[in-house]
Amino acid sequence: MDRSTAYRYLLLTGATSLLGAQIARRLLTAHERLTVYAGQVEELSAIQERNRLARELHDSVSQTIFSTRLHCRSARILLERDPGQASLQLEQLQSLTQSSLEQMRDLITSLWVTENDPAEHPTS
Description:
Blueprint: H1 3-81, H2 83-115
């Protein structure tokens, strides 16, 4: 190999190494950005899921409290007018509150499962 060819070879090899280093730096920068973006997407997804569950929980609690309030008012009125019917109304109220308690537990358990390992929390 003559001197000119060797010189060109060295320049080409050096340019290739420099280009490789630049590409490596760009890839590293892109990887770091993607890692940050992935973390942001994961955080945003968790926030959206928490907000959805919070809305669901709020709606459920609001509806249950409203129904409970109506049943209590009905039972109070019936207690004065027809005590036998008041007993039935109180049984319905008890059933409503039991069902609501179970629903609340299910929703809270789903929050735990979303946030953590499901084995960490009891389902009762």
